Structures are given as structure tokens and as C-alpha cells.
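Dear colleague,

Thank you for sharing your sequence with our group. We've completed the structure prediction you requested, and as agreed, I am returning the results in plain text so they can be pasted directly into your records. Please verify that the sequence below matches your submission; if there's any discrepancy, let me know and we will rerun it promptly.
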Amino acid sequence: MENWDDMRVFLAVARAESLSGAAPVLKMDPATLGRRVARLERAMGATLFVKSPQGYALTDLGERMRDRAAEAEAHLSLAFDEGQGASAALTGQIRIGAPDGAANFLLPQVCAAIQADNPDLEVQVLALPRVVNLSRREADMAVTVSPPAAGRLTVQKITDYHLHLATRADAPPVGSREDLRGRPVVGYIPDMIFDKELDYLGALGADGVQLASNSVAVQLQMLRQTGVGFVHDFVLPFAPELCRVLTDEISLQRSFYLVRHTSDRQSDRLTRFAGALMRGMQAEVARLEQMARLTGSPVI
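Please find the predicted C-alpha cells below.
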């Protein structure tokens, strides 16, 4: 490899597992990326990717190179932070991975506020219906709904949040569980629940779901049409046509956690951003949950 830019291209393609997925990250077209990957493989004298119509999969050598290159990338980031200085505004690019409930209804407001205070900062939110792979550097940090059990990671609890059953406000009233009979249940696709904390059916006592999606945003749109399902309290202000039901009988509490590489705790830039992110999420969850308790309150 003659320069770091070649390795930057390699890492982006390895993480996206395709040229088209890496192109927006690098602001380059897929054809150029393909030529750059081929050039790198010629320079290495080895194949780094297995190419197929499904994408670019790493060879064994490619996986070893990815891990070493990610470590080098982390050290370069630390060097950048040292040069930036603790008193300067945040700059550069920071990517956050998050489940789509947080990504759709919390992080836009929180990240916009942080970026407004740091105009040269680029914030990216990676919304995925699965756990973000930090070891592959898919993101700089991740918001999760349960703390990871393994890996060289640092975990901080951000805040608790609450979920309640909700249905259309103009639907027949619900005074007991019996009133739920015959209504379609909206929820996650059972075999695509990627974290046990997202399995709500036990609390409802339902045998299954009739309208399902792996996306919180899609579930919300389904509930706007019909049925009953669990909704985050912080999401309800975005759907004033829905109302909570059986709040005294059925209520769930979950938590958000911020997960980072242990080595990144040395980065003043990432630590300052993480602090601002946590404070922003705490305040936004509290604000929106308070609004959810006020029937018919619009988002402001």
C-alpha cells in the first residue's frame, strides 16, 4: 500500500460489503472504487475480496487486514484529536449506530442541536434493525437497548424510557384486556427480533402479531391504520391520532446504553461528543414522554 487513502477505500468497502454501499461514505462513484480496490489487490499481490452479485465479501487475508487497518484508523483519529485541542469546537465526522426507534424519533433533534453548536462537525446516524458491529468500525459509537456481554467495549447507561399499548383515539374504547380481543396486534416480526428487550408479546399475553415489521417507524404507520401495539412514549407525540390504553395495567420500561470502543475513551473529541449526546437524549426522552402524558399534545 502506497498511501493511507487506499486503506480508507478498503475499509469502507469492507464495512459496506459492496461498492455501492461504500460510495456515499467516500463521496466517490462505485466504478472508481472498483478500480481502487483492484489497484490495492495488485499492490498486495493477493485477493482481498470475493466478488459476487451479492457484494464484496472479505477473504481470510482481507479480514485480518481489516482488523489491523481499523486499529490504525483509531490511532489516526486519536492523533487528530490531540491536534484539535480540548477547547476547540468539534469537527470531522462522527457516526452513531442506533435502533430505528431512537434513530427516527430522538437522534435527529439531538444531533441537530449538537451540530448547530459545532458547524464544522458532520454527524451520521446509522439506523439498523440489528446490533451495530463496532468491532468492524461500522460506527464510532452505538446506542443499544441492552449492554453487550463481550468485546473490548465501554458501556454507559443513557436513560430509561417507557412503552405503553396504544391504538387509534377514535377506535372503540379499551377498558380491559377483554376489549382487545379481535383487534390485530402490531409488533415486530418474531424471527427478526435482534434483542430480547424488544420482545413485548409476553407482557401483552398475545400469541402472535397480525401486522408486523422490523421497523418501529413502519409499526407506527400500521397503528395509524388499525390495531393495538406497544409504542415508545417518546414516539407518541409524533402520532397525535394515537392514544395510550391500559396504562395502569400494562407498562414496560427499557433503557438506552451508549457503547464505545474502550480505546476511544482516550479521544477527547469522541468523549465530548458522547457527553453531549447522552445529555441531549436524556433531555429529549424526558420532554417527549411528558408530552405523551398530555393527550393530544402536538410535537413542538
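Summary note from our side: The mean pLDDT is 87.

Kind regards,
the structure core
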